[in-house]
Amino acid sequence: MEGMENREDLKSMLPFLPLLLGSSSLFWPSKVVKSLETLSKGPLYSEVDSGELLFNAISHIRDSLALPSLQPVAPFAHGGYALFFDELISRAEASKWFEEVVPALANLLLRLPSLLESHYQDADYLFNGVRTGLRLLGSQEAGIVFLGQELVAALLTCAFFCLFPVSDRGSKRLPTINFDHLFEDIYESYSKKQENKIKCIMHYFERICSSMPEGFVSFERKVLPLEQLPLCVSYPEADFWSKSVVSLCLFEVHSSGFIEDQSNGALEVDFANKYLGGGALRSGCLQEEIRFMINPELIAGMLFLPCMEDNEAIEIVGAERFSNYTGYASSFCFSGDHVDKRNVDGFRRCKTRIVAIDALCRAGMRQYKCTYLLREANKAFCGFLDQSNCDHHKSLFQDGGSQGSQCMETDKDTNVVVKDFPVRSPPVF
Predict the structure, then answer these.
(1) N or C: which end of the chain has fewer CB within 10 A?
(2) Can 345 be counted among the known catalytic residues?
(3) Is 220 a catalytic residue?
(4) Hydrolase among the record's keywords (predicted)?
């Protein structure tokens, strides 16, 4: 087995992780271990029984990391933690959080080094010859990362404790990952939606601390190569689409309901920002941000997936849903626990397949120009395409578009389902 220090996948992630790498293993600094062990013993020992004291403990852990790339948290994040845990939730809820959840999260962070090491040891054997280890999946780098749900939970706990280094993230075009802005926004400009976004995340932590899920989530960067490559479908030109003789396929239109409730095994569309997650960890609360709140495991992809280019999409399989909700945007409201009853596949992933495809930003009338219509068509094609079934797709192109096509859904109000596209499963808009 290759040593930790020699793994290229781990090397690509080290600047973005709070852990240290020794000669053969990952570890926390000793002061961090001591702080986490104190937290893990509960408030009678740690004396952390309020949002204000929790933020102080987080600050102490951050200081103990002594990482030069660990920049200061958002200026008013401390006020957000105090406001949420000391004023916006009931004393009973706060007592449960500090007596049960915070100690469990501290224990989970203590296990993070061993969870990551086990992940890298297993990653080499999940698929024959296919890399699945956690790594920076950069622009134009098609690939897949498989993460256990327990590891995802540990990574999200790091984000809640604001432990991820951030100074290099901008240069790599990575989205926000720590939760400091999520809490700062509720303090600087209180809104009901922001309070309820945080309630969804806190509910997720409560659930995983009482019963840790044991499945997997996969994150795939999908790329339509701009040049012709063997065994790949490349980026189609306008001429291909204009000469296509594919007829419209059978489809269903649902005038009510939500994508996440009526997918029927379809590919579910995340109308994404080019930065995965959009404003999920800030003040955003539209379709993408809501999905990231009710399926918080999606947030893990924000750690290592830089923004999408015009020929790229991101597909996430296995993200479990934990929360119910009502409303949209300013009326968004957490409405209790959701038990995800979807079956799992052969890789122990929940059968939830979400594809993030970003539309042109503020396109206006230019969206009707050929260049931009091509961009949107190919963006969707990239998201729905299964490159692993390449021979079938190549014949589609060689025949000038004379073979099938398949399934979609539109927005919160209208779901469109079309069948017979060469994709892994029908997409849902």
Answers:
(1) N
(2) no
(3) no
(4) yes
